[in-house]
Design a protein that fits this description.
The complex is a heterodimer.
Chain A (H helix, E strand, L loop, with lengths): L4 H21 L13 H8 L1 H33 L5 H13 L2 H12 L4 H8 L13 H26 L3 H9 L4 H28 L3 H8 L10 H10 L3 H29 L1
Helix pairs in contact in A: 1-12, 2-12, 3-7, 3-9, 3-11, 4-7, 5-10, 7-9, 9-12
Chain B lengths: L2 H28 L4 H12 L18 H9 L1 H34 L5 H13 L2 H14 L7 H8 L3 H10 L4 H9 L4 H29 L3 H6 L8 H4 L8 H34 L3
Helix pairs in contact in B: 3-13, 4-7, 4-8, 4-10, 8-10, 10-13
Chain lengths: 271, 282
């Protein structure tokens, strides 16, 4: 226990105890004097900015996580099957993980600006160029940033899962005449069921960090289509709106804790 | 996997890899372009003038102009670079000091409530910053640490993430080795130092590497806790020099990228095993 004590004390001081205080405050008025029940939660729930941000965050998760998880799986299967050059591809796909958001802001602007490079591609295809920063298309900046950053991370996880599947299964299936597509659906997918959930949850949690790119490219008040819970919390903080901040933090913690318990269960079943 | 099919697959992978790496190549190429070339290629984006940006990878007329201007005209860039170092390295040192023993405790000792406590650690590691933001703020303001570097450093030192990663690696240290050590009269700390640390070194490397990449890129904490701009790390400051002088800011972006890039290229093996440790139960 003496090994853990310093860590536990620090966690207690900086996270656990103050979080209990936050939970207490979430039921009080902003001065912490009067008990107000669920009033703060009602305020958060009825807040238009909250609805917008929560809606965008959910939409982002629903679009991006399946897209990321599936493309990373295809990529992992393709790279895993290569006779050589695997390490080179791993390096390429992991590289964005090492790139600070601040370093690519300028490149992102060059890509996503109305006169920018993605606009050029759209023009070549015969479409009108899009002003990503100032229209509903801003959402796509989030999608691209997230996929770019996390593809390698998820690919490594999938490859770990893939390498756990016995070669014999594939050989037996090949002898029985199963082609690559059949082998993928009847051997690969069922054997990966256990880690799929884990990868989805980790992808969800990594998705909160897309705020960095979003904030640096578009600032505190980006176009409404990319206004996320992270922006909202940041702006509540700037306004020092303690009532909403506390209730919001508790709500968010509850949702995420629920997901983590599910994750624990999935980990338990895998053993 | 032989013949045409394998080649098609490699080809598709190469195209995807090229797209993924392209922003980096553009950044590197762009930072060696002169002001005129930049104005010509990306002026329509940066200066909001008519026309369209042109695609570029390599400079036509390579020059160090951006770097020279950065060196001569922007002393604040180096102050901010130094700020980043003064935030990142104390965090890494603190994490090593706090997380490694804690991970050893979780991996090799049994005590009541261990499972629940470890679940709590995992939960905390996975919580996004927005959840702990107010809590951290309340403590930091109570301790009068707001607007000091410690407001970013201290909570990060007690992050549970490195504990979790290192613990995964310590679990692989065979118990027989520990029994042998204690038969030879080694105390718990001696066992930790002479057996645990050397055998868990790859795990510690993984954890520190992931932490380095994370905190070199840290944004949320300084944005929330540091109002004093002179304390800002590069990650927060860099975008402020973006539009005025593109050559300078491309050079600055590249310099900021170099340390994590080197760390990544040297430690890719540890990065991969760190990612696997976070995702899978061995």
């Amino acid at each position: 226990m003496t090994f853990i004590a310093p860590s536990l004390i620090g966690v207690g001081i900086f996270v656990l105890l103050p979080f209990l205080d936050v939970a207490r405050r979430s039921f009080m008025d902003s001065f912490g004097r009067r008990f107000t029940g669920l009033e703060n939660y009602a305020k958060v729930w009825e807040n238009d900015a909250f609805r917008l941000a929560a809606g965008n965050t959910v939409k982002f998760a629903v679009v991006c996580i399946p897209a990321l998880v599936i493309s990373a799986l295809l990529l992992a299967a393709a790279v895993q099957g290569l006779p050589r050059g695997r390490d080179g591809f791993k390096t390429c796909f992991l590289l964005p993980l090492a790139v600070p958001a601040a370093s690519v802001v300028l490149i992102w602007k060059i890509l996503f600006h109305e006169n920018g490079l993605i606009g050029n591609i759209l023009l070549d295809l015969g479409w009108a160029p899009v002003d990503f920063m100032g229209s509903n298309a801003a959402f796509w900046i989030l999608v691209v940033s997230y996929l770019w950053k996390n593809l390698g991370y998820d690919m490594i996880l999938w490859m770990a899962g893939l390498s756990g599947i016995s070669r014999d299964l594939y050989e037996a299936a090949s002898l029985d005449g199963a082609g690559p597509v059949k082998r993928f659906f009847y051997i690969t997918l069922p054997n990966l069921a256990g880690i799929t959930f884990t990868i989805c949850v980790l992808s969800l949690l990594n998705s909160f960090k897309v705020f960095r790119e979003a904030y640096l490219v578009a600032g505190e008040h980006p176009h409404t289509s990319m206004y996320m819970l992270q922006h909202l919390f940041n702006n509540w903080f700037t306004d020092m709106d303690m009532e909403k901040l506390c209730a919001g933090a508790v709500l968010m913690a509850a949702v995420i804790f629920g997901l983590i318990l599910l994750l624990q269960k999935a980990w338990g079943e895998e053993e | 996997m032989s013949g045409g099919k394998g080649r098609i697959r490699t080809g598709i992978l190469l195209v995807i890899a090229a797209v993924v790496c392209m922003p980096l190549v553009m950044l590197i190429g762009g930072s060696f372009m002169g002001g005129d070339e930049i104005a010509e290629k990306i002026g329509p984006v940066l200066a909001e003038r008519e026309g369209r940006a042109e695609f570029f990878l390599f400079p036509q007329y390579p020059t160090l102009q951006g770097f020279v201007e950065l060196l001569l005209d922007s002393p604040e860039f180096f102050a901010m670079f130094w700020n980043t170092c003064r935030i990142v390295f104390p965090i890494l040192a603190g994490q090593l000091l706090i997380a490694a023993p804690a991970a050893w405790g979780f991996a090799k000792y049994r005590f009541r409530g261990k499972k629940a406590l470890f679940t709590l650690y995992i939960a905390l590691m996975l919580m996004p910053f927005q959840v702990t933001m107010v809590s951290n703020y309340l403590v930091l303001s109570g301790l009068h640490l707001l607007d000091t570097r410690l407001s970013v450093i201290l909570p990060a030192i007690f992050s549970t993430f490195p504990v979790f990663i290192i613990c995964r690696f310590f679990q692989g240290v065979p118990d027989a080795l520990l029994e042998a050590a204690s038969l030879d009269g080694a105390g718990p700390w001696q066992t930790f130092f002479y057996i645990g640390l050397p055998m868990g070194a790859p795990g510690i490397a993984s954890a520190l590497l992931l932490s380095f990449l994370e905190y070199w890129n840290v944004l949320e904490q300084p944005l929330t806790f540091l109002k004093d701009r002179s304390l800002w790390p590069l990650s927060l400051y860099l975008p402020n020099i973006v539009s005025e002088k593109a050559a300078v800011s491309l050079a600055a972006s590249l310099i900021m990228l170099i340390p994590p890039l080197l760390v990544f290229l040297m430690g890719q093996k540890y990065l991969e095993s760190g990612i696997r440790a976070a995702g899978l139960k061995e």
